[in-house]
Amino acid sequence: MKESIDDMIINRSNLRGIQESNDSTPKKLIYVIPFDQQAFIPAVLKSLEDSFPEIYVDIQTNSLEDAYVNIAKAEEKLHEGGDR
């Protein structure tokens, strides 16, 4: 089922820059959709709900605070790699 969902989200021809999140698990798939692709989200959600009625589809937006945390984590990893 995951491959089919990936096809509907990541490999969709009219969407660009979508990636599966590192926070995904086998029971919870998380995809990162760029802000400039937000107009396509309703169609993607409708397709998922129609194709997979047995799954729960949810949407979450990142806050500016999330962005700062992610930047800090990336910088920390960069500095850790440079110390070795």
Structure annotation, total helices? 3
| Unreliable spans | none
Which structural class fits the helix and strand makeup? mainly alpha
The proportion of residues in beta strands is: under 5%
Mean pLDDT: 84
- Summed up, the domain count is 1
Order of helices and strands: HEEHH
The shape, in one word, is elongated
Q: Strand tally, please?
A: 2
Largest sheet: 2 strands, antiparallel
Strand order of the largest sheet: 1-2
User: Which percent bin holds the helix content?
Assistant: 40-55%
End-to-end Cα distance: 41 Å
- Please give the oligomerization state of what you see: single chain
Rg (C-alpha, Å): 15 Å
What does this entry look like structurally?
It is a single chain. With 84 residues, the chain is mainly α. The protein has one domain (2-82). It is 45% helix and 5% strand. It contains three helices and two strands. It has helices at residues 2-9, 41-51, 64-82, and strands at 19-20, 31-32. Strands 1-2 form a two-stranded antiparallel sheet. The N and C termini lie far apart (41 Å). The mean pLDDT is 84.
